[in-house]
Amino acid sequence: MDIKSRRIWQVAAGDGERAYHDLLIEWDAIAIGPGEYGPWPDCEALVIAARTRNQATIIRRFAEQMAIGDLIILRKGSSAVCAVGEVASDYLWLDDFGDIDGWDLQHVRRVRWIWKYKGVPVPLGNNVLRFGDSVQDACSNELQQWLTGLDIPKSAASRNLVTLPESCQHGERREQVSLEQLTEGLFDLGIGLSDANTVIDRMRELEMLSGWYKRAQDKPAENETIAYLVVPLLRALGWTPQRMAVEWNNIDLALFSRLPRNDANLAAVLEGKAMNKACLIAKEQGEGYVQAAERSRCERLIVTEGIRYAVFGKVGNSFAIHPGAYINLTRRLSDYPILRSGGAIAAIAFLAADWRYS
Question: Given a cut of 60, is residue 357 above it in pLDDT?
Fold first, then answer.
């Protein structure tokens, strides 16, 4: 691979908990935050006031200094490479990247990936990549030698970029689903008005509770998250205490279609994380709990940190790669196209005990 006279950047795709490199590779993009304050440069003062001056500097680096044709090293952690690509667009602000496992990553550039990892990210050893800022120059001699040795097919550099969802084409903020719209949507699915209102009331209460945790700077542990945030919502969605079992056979929360509470009646597995932690990474762990043949009737896998819920349905004998539905109780959208997922109404229906979304 010829890297002469080319600027090389390394871009992080997560931290010690979150890992969204596959999502960025899937969409031919790199994305950074914080993006909730709007596009650059209009957001600069807000980012400095609400976060840090260094974070504003990183966004400026991403938006102004990076250029089409520059090389991107997509890294995981401090020493592994997931992909190598070429910057293929000017700076974009796309609100569909506003909830990537709880992070607001609306600052986006398109990237044409010309090399991708197979199996596991490639470890390059200590000090080859730089730890720290999510966007920075990558210029070590070891990295340049590794890049030079890559065999890149000519077709890789000329392929068409993956088409982003239609909602990304406008660069505007997504309109959130109001609680009134959510009530109407649930009613249209055949849910009684009284039941729908019970769900909405509980969601409103949970929004207030999550806000209190944030203002109090009090981060609930995983068991507190499940007890005070998850179980109350599921109770409103028709799950009775008899059909819920906390820490049942290593499962954080087991949900049953009927009694008795046994493997054959297991309807859903819920894996929980502490509030504000990454939750999508819990999917693999949850899948491991339903591999046994006697649990084959379990058709839903739920991962959550109390505010964000992703629900995976069965495709054949395994769970789908992408969530069938996703909801952030504090940022409710009609769909989450970057996750290839249905949105708020679909998620509530999919989470419910006896309702089914289709």
Answer: no
Structure token pair of residue 183: 């009530």
Distance (Å, rounded) from C-alpha 324 to C-alpha 310?
8
DSSP code of 166? Answer: G
Structure tokens at 141: 């001699």
Average pLDDT over residues 342-346: 95
Please say whether the dihedral angle defined by the alpha carbons of residues 315, 317, 320 and 325, taken in this order, is positive or negative.
positive
Per-residue pLDDT, averaged over 1-29, amounts to: 91
Could you tell me the CA-to-CA distances from 55 to 52, 63, 73, 74, 220 in Å, in that order? Answer: 5, 12, 20, 19, 26
CA 316 to chain CA centroid, nearest Å: 24
CA end-to-end distance (rounded Å), the chain: 48
Q: Is 20 helix (H, G, I), strand (E, B) or coil?
A: coil
Q: Using one digit for the tens of pLDDT, what is the confidence trace for 65-91? A: 999 999 999 999 888 999 999 999 999
Contacts 24+ apart (CB under 8 A), 201-205: 201/236, 202/232, 202/233, 202/235, 202/236, 203/179, 203/233, 203/236, 203/329, 204/179, 205/232
Token pair for 126 = 């200590």
φ/ψ of residue 344, rounded to 5: -60, -50
Spatial contact of 295 and 310, defined as CB atoms under 8 Å apart: no
Rounded CA separation 246/252 (Å): 6
Identify the DSSP state of 321: S
95 residue type, one letter:
D
